[in-house]
């Protein structure tokens, strides 16, 4: 799939402001700093479409992007940002939860985990949540450029075992080198058509 156009549509800060755009949606979730915004930029070949930052907890809103006038990318706030206040954390969780539960156009949730680390309790809770709401997901193991190619399979096994999913359900990817991005784009293309 070739991405011809990618445009920012809106940021949503509260549950009440969520709306449906009438296009299939692909949401990116995962802990703060895992690389959600960077992945959206890399997939769309736009350096600054979704703001990416070395400061964790940057994306505190749900950001909607319209791609090829055919589908939406949804950049969700990162969970598990330790320095956020309790009130802030529950505000984000409410926002993420409401979106995942009520979005009628959500076609696939991409759950991002860092390829270098064992997934956290929060990651496991996210999967349980998605199972509970029957929301189909795919796991993307980010920052694959940070480990040697020959180590990727070993890391995928650890992630698969920790999350209790099949290794073939995890796509290793790098926003830095572009590794794995075509696989994600092809998956999206198939889901948009299907
Ligand atoms: P929040 O918005 O805080 O939830 O974070 P995020 O998940 O959107 O992460 P973001 O894309 O802002 O990336 C966090 C940091 O990781 C930035 O410094 C990125 O440059 C870096 N990063 C993201 N993806 C990759 C990758 O594939 N490889 C490498 N080496 N660094 C990456
Ligand atoms: Mg972000």
List key phrases describing it:
single chain, 194 residues, alpha/beta, Rossmann fold, 5 helices, 7 strands, binds guanosine-5'-triphosphate, binds magnesium ion
Give the SSE layout:
Elements: E1 6-12, E2 25-30, H1 36-44, E3 62-67, E4 71-75, H2 86-102, E5 106-114, H3 121-132, E6 137-142, H4 152-163, E7 170-172, H5 181-193
Describe this protein's structure.
The protein is of the alpha/beta class. The protein has one domain (6-13, 21-193): P-loop containing nucleotide triphosphate hydrolases (Rossmann fold, 3-Layer(aba) Sandwich), CATH 3.40.50.300. The protein is built from 5 helices and 7 strands, in the order ββαββαβαβαβα. A 7-stranded mixed β-sheet has the order 1-3-4-2-5-6-7, with helices on both faces. The radius of gyration is 15 Å and the shape is globular. The protein binds guanosine-5'-triphosphate and magnesium ion. The site of magnesium ion has 5 residues, from α1. Guanosine-5'-triphosphate (GTP) binds at residues 30, 32-38, 52-54, 56-59, 78, 142-143, 145-146, 174-176.
Walk across the major sheet and give the strand order. 1-3-4-2-5-6-7
Helix fraction by DSSP (H/I, runs of at least 4): 25-40%
CATH class: Alpha Beta
The fourth-level CATH homologous superfamily is P-loop containing nucleotide triphosphate hydrolases
- Average residue pLDDT: 90
Cα distance spanning the termini: 14 Å
Ligand catalogue: guanosine-5'-triphosphate, magnesium ion
Whole-number total of structural domains: 1
The percent range for strand residues is: 15-25%
Radius of gyration: 15 Å
Structural class: alpha/beta
Number of continuous helical runs: 5
Low-confidence segments, given as residue ranges, are none
- Following the backbone from N to C, one meets helices and strands in this order, namely EEHEEHEHEHEH
- Tell the overall outline: globular
């Amino acid at each position: 799939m070739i991405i011809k156009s990618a445009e920012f549509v809106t940021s949503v800060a509260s549950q009440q402001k969520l709306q449906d755009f009438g296009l299939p949606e692909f949401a990116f979730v995962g802990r703060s700093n895992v690389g959600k915004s960077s992945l959206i930029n890399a997939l769309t070949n736009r350096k600054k479409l979704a703001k990416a930052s070395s400061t964790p907890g940057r994306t505190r809103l749900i950001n909607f992007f319209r791609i090829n006038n055919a589908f939406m990318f949804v950049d969700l706030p990162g969970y598990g940002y330790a320095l956020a206040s309790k009130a802030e954390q529950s505000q984000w969780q409410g926002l993420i939860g409401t979106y995942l539960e009520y979005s009628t156009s959500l076609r696939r949730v991409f759950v991002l985990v860092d390829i270098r680390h064992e997934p956290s309790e929060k990651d496991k809770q996210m999967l349980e949540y998605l199972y509970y709401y029957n929301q189909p997901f795919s796991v993307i193991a980010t920052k694959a450029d940070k480990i040697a190619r020959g180590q990727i399979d070993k890391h995928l096994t650890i992630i698969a075992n920790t999350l209790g999913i099949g290794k073939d359900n995890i796509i290793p990817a790098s926003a830095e080198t572009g590794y794995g991005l075509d696989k994600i784009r092809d998956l999206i293309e198939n889901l948009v058509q299907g």
